[in-house]
Write a structure and sequence with these properties.
alpha/beta, Rossmann fold, seven-stranded parallel beta sheet, six-stranded parallel beta sheet
Amino acid sequence: MKVLIVTYYWPPSGGGGVQRWLKFATNLNKLGCVTFAYTPSNPDVPILDPSLVQDIPEGTTILSQPIFEPSRVLKFLSSKTSSDRLGATGGVGKKSLLAKLSLWVRGNLFVPDARVGWVKPSVKYLNKWLGSNPVDVIITTGPPHSMHLIGLGLKAKYPKLPWIADFRDPWSDMDYLQDFQMGKKARKKLIQMEKDVAGKADRLIVTSRSAERKLLEGNTGISVFIPNGWDPEDYPKSQPTQANSDTIRLGHFGSLHGSRNAPGLWKAIDDFKSQGNNVELVFAGSVSPEIREELKEHNCVFMGGLPHKEAVSEMLKCDALLLIHNDTDSATRSTPGKLFEYIATSNPIISICRSKGDLADMLDGFGLPHGTHTDVSAALTMLQSFRDQQAVDPAPYTRMKQAEKLLEVIRSTQ
């Protein structure tokens, strides 16, 4: 089975989007497939993790073409660095007029996203490549959801070639789109693109149940739920040595910004400390200046971005892990990938999310507690009782298990 994967995020890029398809490619190869990954040669990404390059499977052929990144131009109109995801920080903080203009340009001139200019040259390149290199299935993964427009273009040329569209996050209702001040014309165009992709793809894959319901509105597509997972290969063979200390180490791994702020949790940690507990907060990943300001009275360690396996090792050194999801309507239709890596550590998890949504439902199913972003009482209860938390069996969520399910989906299209 020959599989062409179209993905914007690929090593040395870092983050959850890279992990999902790097692991899928690795395990599909082990299951007897031949994989090809089409990706930009010069992407402008928010996270780099060069250590992942060594994890690219030898059996995967890399196809690449250069991409023009508007973010490298728009950075001069905003306070962001070129690799920041414009609009993805939750809209917190005062923006300059030029910064607002750059967001408007992004939302109204680059639809569905800033990588849309890569679609036409990619379709042209892959049309030619497929002419002499036939495959059994094409898989596109987003965000950025313009990757699905590449699949749509290839489907027009090769209507009998199966196409699977993988949605790691919502599309037309993604939370940060509100920052872009999208006009009616741009919004209508975005929604139509989503409908076209959902209607033309042979299969849709979602990582969250509610995203499936949204995509299938008004069409008869076939959707499959394949959540993210964890890879035993990323975990050390022996448990890292923890310092003999009475300090409780709480760790958050990943970006923490804007709509992920959890003032109720920070206040609960204050109350927990006033009860005689020593607490150290560990943050691996970017933390916004606004949240750093709120945490200035706490005992914090800011590690910045870490290579993936090093991040896993640090997770294992924590007494409990903090899972903080976006406090937005869109986030109720998504589930953070790090949940499964957290579960695989067997460490207690203190979860902050909206009380209704896919993440809340999954946590309830696991028997894990959670509280909202402003609920001091629920957060304090979780802190006081985290040692009594029962571990969740991670075995059903290994990357290999997810790859086996993906292979079933691929075979169903043949």
